[in-house]
Write a structure and sequence with these properties.
With 235 residues, the protein is mainly alpha-helical. The protein contains 14 helices and 2 strands; from the N terminus they run αααααααβααβααααα.
Length: 235
């Protein structure tokens, strides 16, 4: 009778927002109605824009309902988000205990842990020798992407932190990031600023113009146009 009542209520939930579906599923979990909660999760479209917590919740529901294939599908999506806390979240989630006996569990978890942050390796080699061939180092890591993960935002921030003390190193690093990961607006802007600080206004202007072609947001476009205008008047 409980399942029949749930199925009668489904049209109301499905017509509502995804949040209503998740909220109702959570109520069902609290009352140990795992299968009914899983039926609600079946209604979530595979290509829906889901947050990391949403994916973890769905995987938990399927795990509790002993549907490992579906649970692992969403866990793999979660790992693809490249959140550094993801593995910890998965390991500490008690609702996923049913998956620990699955032969895919160790591979799922260890795949993420085996990867080393590219920035960690870059910092390490620069500490030993600031004149090291960064192109060769980054190219090697880039080709071995199964063991290294690239967080471009963090690498850009690190390069920017070198502006005052090691500007030439920063320029070399940003050039390599721009080479291997073209199209990153922040990298282009930072590289332009680095060349501008070094006194190479021609290269700075060229980089600003190239970055402008990437169609940044309105604020960034205004900043780039202003920088280009100033450099034009300095020539």
């Amino acid at each position: 009778m409980k399942t029949i009542y749930l199925l009668c209520a489904l049209p109301v939930i499905i017509c509502g927002q995804t949040l209503n579906r998740f909220g109702y599923a959570e109520i069902l979990l609290n009352t140990y109605n795992y299968h009914e909660a899983a039926l609600l999760m079946d209604g979530v479209k595979k290509d829906s824009p889901l947050s990391a917590s949403d994916r973890l919740f769905i995987a938990s529901v399927y795990s509790l309902d002993h549907q490992p294939d579906k649970a692992i599908f969403y866990l793999k999506q979660l790992l693809d988000t490249k959140d550094t806390e993801t593995v910890k979240m998965i390991r500490e989630n008690k609702d996923l205990t049913n998956l620990h006996s699955d032969k895919r569990w160790d591979d799922l978890i260890n795949e993420k842990q085996q990867k080393t942050a590219a920035l960690t390796e870059i910092k390490k080699v620069l500490q030993k020798d600031s004149s090291v061939n960064l192109h060769a180092i980054i190219e090697k890591m880039f080709l071995d992407s199964s063991h290294y993960s690239f967080d471009i935002d963090k690498i850009n921030s690190f390069a920017q932190s070198l502006f005052k003390t090691q500007l030439p190193v920063s320029i070399r690093l940003l050039n390599e990031v721009n080479r291997f990961f073209p199209g990153n607006i922040e990298t282009g802007m930072l590289l332009g600023e680095a060349y501008e600080q070094s006194g190479d206004r021609l290269m700075a202007r060229q980089l600003y113009e190239e970055t402008l072609l990437l169609k940044p947001d309105a604020t960034t476009t205004y900043i780039l146009l202003k920088k280009i205008s100033i450099l034009q008047h300095m020539d």
